[in-house]
Each structure stands twice: as C-alpha cells, then as structure tokens.
Amino acid sequence: MGAAENQSFCAVVPVYRHEEASRHVAEALSKANIHVVLVDDGNTPEGHAILENIAAQVPNTHLVTNKVNMGKGGAVISGLKAAFAMGFTHAFQIDADGQHDLNAIPFFIKASRKHPQNVISAFPQYDGSVPKAREQGRKITNFWVYVETLSTEIPDTMCGCRVYPLHTVLPIANKIKNYRMGFDIEIMVRISWAGIKMNFYPIKVTYPEDGVSNFRVLHDNLAISATHTKLVCGMLLRLPKLLLRKIRPKK
Fold it and tell me: Are 205 and 124 in contact (CB under 8 A)?
C-alpha cells in the first residue's frame, strides 16, 4: 500500500465568535468526505450550544472544547492534538468564518495526497473586501519572514488554510507558546527552519461584509511585532545551519 493510500484526513476548524458561520464550513467539509474537528475556543454558553448542535447534526463532526479562550494558536493546537489522538495522519486547518473558497477543499487534499510529507498551504488572492490595513500588514510580515528564513520561497504565512502532516508538524506546534494571532506566522517559520518542504497554491479569499473580526488592531499588531523580534533572534542562532542549507545543492 502506497503512502497516499495510508493517509487519513480531518479538518481542524478553530471557532471563536463565528459559531453560526462555522456551520457552513463544517457542512462543506463533511460533503467533501472530510472528518471535521470543530474547536470551541472559549465561546459563550450560547455559542457552545450552537457548536454542539452543529457537531450533532453535521455528519462526521467532532467538537473539542477549550473552557477558556486560548487564542487561535491555542485552538489550532488543541485541534491538532485531538486529530492525532483520533488516528488521523493529516489535518486541514481552515478558518471558521468562511473567508476561504470552500470549493478549493478537494484540490488541497489532492495536493497533500501527492506530497504527503509536505505542508500544503494556501496563499490568498484577495478581492475588494480585504481591509487595506490587513493587506499592508501582510506585506510587512512577508518581508520579515524572508529575513527570518533567509528565503523568498514562502509567499504567505498569515493565511490560515493549510494541510499539515501531523507526525512532523505537531511536535513543532507543541513547542510554540504564542497562542494568539502570531501563531500562523511562527509555525510556518519554524516549519521552514526544520527543513520541512512546503507547497503553496492560490485560494480566493473574501471577507464577509457582516463578519466578526477577532483581530485587535493595536494589541495584535504589537504581539506580531514581538513574534518577529523573537523569530529574528531565532534565525541568528540558526544562521550557520541556514546558510549551510542554502549553499548545499537541493536533492
């Protein structure tokens, strides 16, 4: 039996204040024959009840509950741990608000089956709905990621739509203490440091007009800046290894 035939997929969907929108995401994943792991990241009792109903009504949906809000990173890690414990080999992280094109789900699963050892990540193709501040922030982050990885091969680290091979990525995720908005950035930089290959494919991203944003402009931008400071220091500690990797011929 080949490696692709041994793969088993689930989707990890972190949910905080997007309980209603997450139903549509769970239904789309379920229709694509993907087991869904919803992570209730400290929602209100009313929100938790909505998620319980979704888990009961949408086939192959499992609910993981964080009693208190741990942030997106904490929710994703809880979901990855649950996925691994349930025996899945790969986890498809996707946001709960429906901003990612759900029609692309089969493509990303197919790409992961073709490259089972690699992280399969989306990079966003925005329409006019993207907030300008968010778009500019991504450009700044991309610059610092180039510095932190000594590479221009990572076009985006902030799009929360990825397929992780759990046996290699979960140990990296378990070491990350940044549970807030900087998690998506930090894990991709650390995956690059670990030498795990990544494949990037475009995905349409639409910000819902009536969507609820969990991004706190001042607080989260300061936190992301602190994340980059830490990662630059981490790069300097790894500089000899990263430089050696660059001069070695690729296999």
Answer: yes
